[in-house]
Design a protein that fits this description.
The protein has 20 helices and two strands. With 408 residues, it is mostly helical. Helix 4 packs antiparallel against helix 5. The chain is globular and about 70 Å long.
């Protein structure tokens, strides 16, 4: 435990700034982790390490906030730490939480984006009224859309009309509204799905699909089937693997023949997780264009990396610098892959869905859930939210200890 009261001022500042930098860095890891192949155990370790650093900053109190505000001038990401500390401070309320929320209106976009993430991870008890105050606008801007998202993220009751995605130059506001929409009771509908999946930004389209799954939108599977049939957009084709049925495998297989969407369709087969798709994926590994995507889907279903042959020689004519950067990718050893599947296919029930070799049909949110890599876990959860009434409302983008009780 740090005893900051006896530390010389220059030592105190150095130690506190180091903790701020550590938290800022780990916050970025926490933000990206739910969409990564990271394990649940490593994510839990990441969250605990971050909490240890935050505890030290809480002990430093107002000094940590002051040093953090100075650090923002050189490191915009420090705003995430300052926003959290101000939001949770036991001193100077309600002014401290008002300052925290005011960071959402900061001029540099990097600062307001960092503040938004800090508020997502912070306790919301002090900031709620200030967030609600930002909603009283005739049109959406970053601050009001971010405030709505943070309220929804903490499962605080809020009812607003999302409207159509704004026609702004970027995608920030539309993305935030889609993220909020799926977390608000009764706010998201089939009209929003169609409008937001029509957005130019891939991340807005992906957020709209997740929102529709999260709120159990009945029209979502049919929407993804229609998108796969017309071969647009890519995100909905891949998402058919999340919400589709065994009968949809043939539609995804047909889509792989179109070069424009083939990799999205192969990804969808991996997300669908049917052992009956493995022979088809083995055939695709003969294609130079789709071999790697098919190998990734093969692993995603059965949990075994496709065997590889020897690494290729570098192409002739490369300079020494180019040789240093060249990373050979050994080709799939297709005969060995076929032999492996022939010997192991009987382990997999053709009527079940699998992810990394684990049966996710029988009890998808049970003990098997915690064994899945985080991004795959997220897909399994969204499938249950989309298709199984009564699936609990979890939040997989926050601290591990809050994921199953996001509104607590």
């Amino acid at each position: 435990m740090h005893n900051y009261s006896k530390a010389p001022p220059e030592v105190l500042e150095d130690v506190v700034c180091e903790h701020i930098a550590n938290v800022s860095q780990v916050f970025g890891g926490i933000r990206n982790a739910p969409f990564s192949p990271q394990s649940g155990e490593s994510f839990d370790s990441l969250c605990c390490r971050c909490e240890d650093n935050l505890d030290a900053l809480r002990i430093a109190g107002d000094k940590a906030i002051s040093f953090g505000q100075t650090a923002i001038q050189d490191d915009c990401e420090a705003a995430s730490v300052v926003a959290l500390l101000l939001a949770e401070s036991d001193n100077g309320q309600p002014g401290a939480s008002e300052q925290s929320v005011a960071l959402l209106r900061h001029e540099p976009p990097e600062i307001r984006q960092a503040a938004w993430w800090g508020l997502r991870l912070a306790n919301s008890r002090h900031v709620e009224p200030h967030l609600r105050g930002l909603l009283r606008k005739s049109s959406w801007d970053f601050a009001s859309a971010a405030a709505l998202d943070v309220l929804a993220f903490h499962r605080l009751p809020v009812q607003v009309d999302l409207g159509r995605p704004p026609d702004d130059e970027g995608d920030e506001i539309a993305w935030l509204l889609a993220e909020a929409g799926g977390r608000m009771r009764g706010a998201w509908n089939a009209r929003h799905l169609k409008q937001y999946v029509g957005h130019a930004s891939p991340r807005v389209r992906e957020a709209a699909l997740r929102a529709s799954a999260r709120c159990g939108l009945a029209e979502l599977p049919a929407f993804c089937r229609e998108a796969t049939a017309r071969l647009d957009p890519l995100e909905a084709i891949a998402f058919l693997g999340v919400v589709g049925s065994p009968q949809d495998a043939s539609m995804l297989q047909r889509a792989t023949s179109n070069p424009a969407v083939s990799k999205a369709a192969v990804g969808g087969l991996g997300r669908l997780g049917l052992p009956t798709s493995v022979p088809f994926l083995l055939d695709l590994m003969e294609s130079p264009e789709l071999a790697e995507a098919a190998a990734a889907a093969f692993w995603r279903i059965i949990g075994e990396k496709a065997p590889r042959g020897p690494a290729p020689d570098p192409p002739p004519g490369l300079t020494e610098d180019e040789l240093d950067l060249w990373e050979p990718r050994p080709p799939v050893d297709l005969p060995r892959a076929r032999d492996w599947w022939k010997s192991n296919a009987a382990r997999f029930d053709p009527a079940k869905h699998y992810q990394v070799g684990l049966n996710v049909s029988d009890d998808p949110l049970g003990s098997v859930f915690d064994q899945l890599p985080l991004a795959i876990r997220y897909d399994v959860y969204l499938r249950e939210r989309a298709l199984t009434p009564g699936t609990p409302d979890w939040e997989l983008e926050t601290w591990t200890w809050k994921q199953k009780t996001p509104g607590a």
